[in-house]
Design brief:
Layout lengths: L9 H8 L9 H11 L12 H8 L3 H15 L3 H35 L3 E6 L2 E6 L8 E4 L8 E13 L1 H4 L5 E2 L18 E2 L4 E13 L5 H9 L8 H30 L4 H15 L4 H18 L2 E3 L2 H9 L2 E4 L11 E7 L2 E8 L2 E6 L2 E2 L6 H12 L21 H12 L4 H7 L2 E5 L7 E7 L5 E7 L1 H6 L1 E5 L5 E3 L2 H16 L3 E10 L10 E10 L6 H10 L3 E5 L4 H11 L9 E3 H6 L5 H9 L2 E3 L3 H13 L4 E5 L5 H6 L2 E5 L5 H6 L2 E3 L4 H41 L8 H11 L1 H8 L22 H29 L3 H18 L20 H19 L1 H7 L6 H32 L1
This protein binds adenosine-5'-triphosphate.
Length: about 900
Amino acid sequence: MLTDAHSRTVAELLKALDVTSEAGLDEAEVARRYAQHGPNRLEEKQARSAWAILLAQFKSPVVILLLIAAATAAAFGQVVESIAIAAALLINAVIGFVTEFKAMRSMEALSKMGRTTAAVIRGGARTEIDAAELVPGDIVILEEGNVVPADLRLVDVGVLHCNESALTGESVPVSKSSNALDDDDPPLAERANMAFSSTAVTRGEAIGVVVATGTATEIGKISEMVSAAEDQGTPLERRLEHLGQRLIYLVIAVGIVVAVSGIIAGKELFLMVETAIILAIAAVPEGLPIVATVALGRGMWRMARRNALVKELSAVETLGATTVIFTDKTGTLTENRMTLHQVALPAGNIDVVRTRGLGEFQDNSEPVDVERRHDLQAMLRAGVLCTNAALGEGEPGNEQMGSRGDPTEVALLEAAAWAGMRRRDLIEALPEEREESFGSETKMMATYHRTDDGAYLVAVKGAPESVLRHCTHVRGHDGGDQTLSDDARQEWLQRNRDMAARGLRVLAMAERTVNDAGAEPYRDLALLGLVGLYDPPRESVKGAIAACRGAGIRVVMVTGDQPETAANIAHAIGIVDEKQPSVLRGRDLGDLDAADEQARERIWKTSIFARVSPEQKLNLVSLYQDEGEIVGMTGDGVNDAPALKKADIGIAMGKRGTEVARETSDVVLQDDAFETIVMAIEQGRAIFSNIRKFVVFLLSGNLGQIIAVSAAALMNAPLPLLPLQILFLNLLLDVFPALAIGVSKSESEVMTHAPRDPREPLLTRNSWLTIGGFGTLIAASMLAAFAYALLVLGVDEATAVTISFLTYGFARLWHVFNMRARDSGLFTNNLVRNPYVWGAIAVCGVLLLSAVYIPFLSSLLHTVEIGPKEWAVVLIGSLTPLIVGQIGVTIAGLRRRSAA
Ligand code: ATP
């Protein structure tokens, strides 16, 4: 890393870095430097090695319990038993290892999808590489719209402006050059010959040489300080672990009671000790954290395939609990495809009508002869001059095709093209000398153009209220300027509001002439008129907003545009019902006192915030979070980063957004669409509901086992399940059905209720009741089958135990279907439709049969072959919990529907 790169000359620096700007580095040198400096990434998260994952499998309490059980068996001389337990231990570890390893690899693959690229010169040729592969000495080409991929010393600069607010807090772009600086240690903001990683190129192009990568960059140093916190798993994973730990104590207590009462009743000592230990193992839902990770990870993939890149597992969870979404308007709710609809000139309005693709200017439905309208021409010319966009070379009627730049500006270029005005012709006569970039505070931009007589024409466009404030004149029909009176200014503002109320995005255009290109742009302007652009709402946004309403999620529009435009669009897409809704402006937020109850009430009731600056977005997020809301916030600009970070779910725009916004956010929308946010929330909810379901599924099954075995021990009856059978059932049969539930698709129900309270425990009172109910039911049917076999059929104990073993095993399999949503159909729910569920049932069914019919397994598990009569008992016994359960779920569904 070169700390003094800014004070060296370009030649010196290139020499020090041993590179030329024409050829760049060669591959061998790149490889060497990469090995030395590592990847160019900000947060370098250490990927867990396979060994670490394998080792972690042996750290669980279950393993300790199994070891104790194996040792006990060995101590009692039960060698086969002891080996079987050790084998179970290994199988447990292998299953855990494989699932966790796969989940991790797929998550790594996912994180690679979000990478950015950089244009470099290597081996004498220009190539695009993954920005993470940059090394010091690489020659990087910067272009407008890029995010600087590493810290660069600029080598060759034409015009280059960078927005460095991510680093310096200064939101006005700074101009760059390649000259060496005299000062040895100037502040970052003054290092004009450097381009810093993560800052945005707002204009121009340049070539630079990489002097620092990854955490050695200036932004890297900052982010290292911020994100030093250790990874502790997601809140959900932590809660599951906590639940598992609490269950262990409970179960050890149960084990002791069972062992002691069995021994008192005169049962064999070894059998009772082993039963107690194995019961404890059975009751610990050891697969929980893994299944949760798998469910969350698969959810991430599912979302990624549908254009929502979720960067952290924990965000999946938070998504499901989101209570309010703050969304910007342009491009998220609308298509970001603008066309000019109306022009307001001093002489009156002109409509722009599209006929057969081409736009036609009309005055009162009569075509306008643009050649003779100097006022209209001046206005269109300002739009063509004051721009950073470029129109594509599309056919007439399809001019926007292949365009680049801000859609607002593209629309103005397109309209001018209809009138026969092209930028390349105009700029020849009026070459651009300088630009005053658009700023979100000024809401204006200006360009300076040299005229034939040596003066400069300044073309200005921007938010109407901003531009009008600086206009002293208005350009008349004849081309002469007249003074703009206060009354006239008010009239123009009213014309602006009228256009905005029709949903148009309105800009004012103005001009002035100066003698010096350094003169201030926004003074003594002559107003040319207003342009109204239409950006249609996205087709499917209405449905998505209705879905949010149904799901109890508030949608609040937060836009930089003006109140009238915002209100019109908000009404059109269903954010508000009123045609004239209440709208707050960003600056009102500052005036409102947060401690004032009435003011808070006003903010609370408002669903549209207009003319909001990035800082005010941050205030809004805080205000809502203070009320306990879980806030999702969209953003794209560099200065949206603080609000994105503060929000519970920061949502960046993948297409329109800057790299900075993408890096600080939790979710990146690859299609920039609002619907995708709603899809992600739905998935988040579905995943949480799935995780809750498989916990209920696992615990109710385990509880059934505990109840049955304890009851038999306490009643001094034979045990319905033997220790190794319990081990077999749990280690093999728990995992697959639970995993299948965990990866079920979302069901309609998840978007019909209010968001879950994030403080709500994973298992509610209702879940515990369900666990208790099903546990008792499963225990009762197993014991009934066992008793029937012993007492009515009069079979021997080995046959009876085989019957209860199979009854329990199959009852647990069918029990999967009891986990369906209350309002889903008996045969049309997402479990019946889930192929993984059927796969799990097939695998487990075969395993259960093998336990009886494969001699080696049956002798190990002490099972015997049974006849048709016995099978009938197994079938009836195992189907009972399913039938009773389905009746219960159906009744619950009916009650819910009638309550609704
Ligand atoms: P949203 O938040 O929904 O994206 P927005 O694009 O209107 O809304 P900003 O980008 O903050 O928000 O722009 C604020 C205002 O600045 C705009 O409403 C417009 O009046 C003006 N403006 C935007 N882009 C330009 C531009 N390229 N040139 C001049 N003025 C502009």
